[in-house]
Amino acid sequence: MKFKKTVFLLMFSMILTSWLIVGTESVHAATSNSVVLRERDQLKLILDDGNGVNRVFKFNLQNTLKPDTPIRLYTNYTEIPSSDFTVDYTNSTITIADSRPAPSLGSENHMEFPIAPAMEWSVGEKLCVALSEGDGKSRIFEIPTQNLIKKGSKVDLFIDDIAIPTSYFTVDYINKTVTLNNKLEAPHDGAKIYFYYSKLDNSSMQSVDETTVTPSTEEPKVTQPEVETKTKETPIVREPEVPQPTVEPQGTQPVMESKEEQAADESPEIPLSIPSGEQFPGTFTINPSGTSFVVRLKMKNIQPTYTSYVMVKNSDAQLVKRIQFNPETTFNYSLSNLDLSTGGYYFYIKMMDQSGNSAASVPQFVPINNNKAGQVVVFIDGRLQQYEQPATSISGSMLVPFRAVFEALGAKVKWDGATKTVTATKGNTTIKLTVGSRDAYINGKLVRLNAAPRLINGKVMVPIRFVSEALGAKVKWNIAAQSVVIFLAPPQVLTTSESEQLMEENEDKPEPQSNPTILKKISTTLTKSTDIVFVIDVTSSMTGTLDYVRQKVKGFVDSVPAGSQFAIVAFRDINLKADKDLEFFEFTADKNKLKGNLNMLRPSAGGDLKESGLEAIQLAISKFPKNSNSKTIIFITDAPVHDKNTAPDKARFSVDEMNEQLQKNAVIFNAIVPANGTANKQMKKLVDSNKGTLYDIKDAKLNLAK
Question: Fewer CB atoms inside 10 Å of the end CB: C or N, the chain?
Answer without folding.
Answer: C
